Amino acid sequence: MSYRHAPLLWSALSVGCIEADKSGLQQQQEAEVDCSKLDQKQREAEPKCQTLASATSGSRLVRRIVFTDSIGIDDPGESRGEGPIPFDFLPDGAGVAVANPVGDTVGVWDRDALAPGGDEHVSPGLLLTEGGVALGSAVRSTTDSTGQNVVVLGAPVGGVVLVVPADEAGSYGAFEAASAEIATGMGAFGTAVAWGDFDGDGHDDLATTAPEDGTDGAVWVMAGPFNGLVNATADGVRIGGTADLRPDGALESAGDLDGDGADELLVGFPDAGALAVLHGAGAWTTGAADFDSADAQVAGDGDFGRAVAVWSDQNDDGVADLVVGAPGDSSRESGGGTVWLLDGGSVLEGGSLSAQDTVLARVFGEATDAALGTALAAGGDSDGDGTAELIVGAPGAADLDDVETGAVYTVETFDVAGDVEHESWVGIRGHGVSGRADGSQLGTRVRGGVDIDGDGLFEVGAIARGESALEVIYGGALD
Ligand SMILES: [Ca+2]
Ligand SMILES: [Ca+2]
Ligand SMILES: [Ca+2]
Ligand SMILES: [Ca+2]
Fold first, then answer.
1. Biggest alpha carbon distance in the chain?
2. What is the DSSP letter of 309?
3. CA of 355: how far to CAs of 203, 269, 276, in Å?
4. Cα of 474 to ligand 4 centre, how many Å?
5. Backbone angles phi and psi of 176, in degrees to 5
6. Residue ranges of E strands in 333-421
7. 18 vs 38, 325, 338, CA distance in Å?
8. How many A from CA of 198 to the centre of ligand 2?
């Protein structure tokens, strides 16, 4: 592989190291500040009002892949409609799987195709197709509990989830090789998928949303291991939505937050503005349930629950903390969006909570319609300082010239204060990358946590929806 620095592929890296002055911060928390009455310069000087827009510059290696007819469509813009571009990196940084659900195709690119510095088109090494099922509406790649690498694909028009294993050469074969086809055939089953050991028996299980199942939607949970056809209706467990809680957003395994050996499940309800937390090995893993019996419900505003991620323990209480995106939130800028950092320990205690009850920090999008928090992912350490980062997408964010390119941020930490005034934003350290052009919508989807080139620094992947492109931003030093 050849490596070269990308020559100003990014118009500007729009977000820089923002380090809140903590002594100043504490003073600021004593006084009320109305950020909406300050201009941009005043806000940037005011810790309580800082957003992700403060600037520096830098460069990292990047690789862009633009999706053309080689993944089964003639006109990427037209054929994709307005739909998303789901993707996931393959385990061990072996490549990436990117879906076009409108075209019923999933392309798989291997590591070599992602060599940094390039901008030329590369066809996927493998193309998976299955007509008429909205293949790849959800894409999740993982290593299962037996050590097998799998790609899990949701196909909600077909009401099916496919589990496709890697062969001995590490390639993902045709669907004939799918180790499992898990289906109800209805209700948009397969719209979002999560993978974890929810019942705590040592085998990975599958959860999927079915937002059109019945009146109020549902989440289905199927116990692994999987082999062949699985009839979810007969062998799965249904968690029914309610009139207030229709599962139409994020679905993630939280990992084992409480250390009892079973993974917790996080379910987002952005239409309602809520997040449900179901403790692993709960009654919902063996029998029908509904979300009124969730261990915890956290309520927020502005599409709260559109995206969710588990981050490292930010307040040093021994419990990993949760990050929830509310990309439609307008509490600071109209449609600017908000990312909430919630105290995982408080959420584990359970009950009916508001986001404010459990907040450690929150960050506001810096511009109208920035939609900060549209996508979230826990990343690895991309700059080599030893701390893993959180990846945040804001597809409507503006760059330093106020061009709405979208942006993706790698957040080192929110500066969590012991006694947080919930209305204040308490500082952040992070970096950002802007999209290439007006309307790029960089940050529509984000993933991370893989080291593709093996240099020990982790890469960040982000969809630029407006360009029908994936940008892979390689880990490296920042200027
Ligand atoms: Ca299990
Ligand atoms: Ca647990
Ligand atoms: Ca914590
Ligand atoms: Ca790397």
1. 64
2. E
3. 32, 13, 12
4. 6
5. -55, -25
6. 338-342, 351-354, 359-364, 375-378, 390-394, 407-414
7. 19, 21, 17
8. 8
CA of 352 to the centre of ligand 2 (A): 19
For 168, other C-beta atoms within 10 Å of its C-beta total 5
Cα distance between residue 415 and residue 54, in whole Å: 16
Question: Please, what's the b/e burial string for 341-353 (b: 16 or more CB within 10 A of its CB; e: otherwise)?
Answer: bbbbbbbbeeeeb
Nearest to 400 by CA among 10, 37, 35: 10
Name the closest ligand to CA 414.
3
Distance, C-alpha 55 to centroid of its chain: 24
Neighbours of ion ligand 3 (CB under 5 A): 313, 315, 317, 319, 321, 344
Query: In terms of Cα–Cα distance, which of 267, 239, 238 is closest to 251?
Result: 267
CA of 256 to the centre of ligand 2 (A): 4
Q: Could you give phi then psi for residue 87, rounded to 5 degrees?
A: -155, 165
Written as six digits, the tokens of 350 are 């359970």
| Full pLDDT tens readout for the chain, 479 residues | 222 222 222 222 333 222 323 233 233 333 455 655 666 566 555 544 444 433 233 457 788 887 764 454 444 444 555 678 999 999 999 999 999 888 888 889 999 999 987 777 788 888 888 889 999 999 999 998 889 899 999 999 999 999 998 877 777 765 566 778 899 989 999 999 999 999 999 999 999 999 999 999 999 999 999 988 899 999 999 999 999 999 999 999 999 999 999 999 999 999 999 999 999 999 999 999 999 999 999 999 999 999 999 999 988 999 999 999 999 999 888 999 999 999 999 999 999 999 999 998 888 887 899 999 999 999 999 989 899 999 999 999 988 788 999 999 888 887 665 545 444 444 566 778 888 899 999 999 999 999 999 999 999 999 998 888 899 999 987 65
The residues that bridge with 98 in the sheet, in sequence order, are: 87, 107
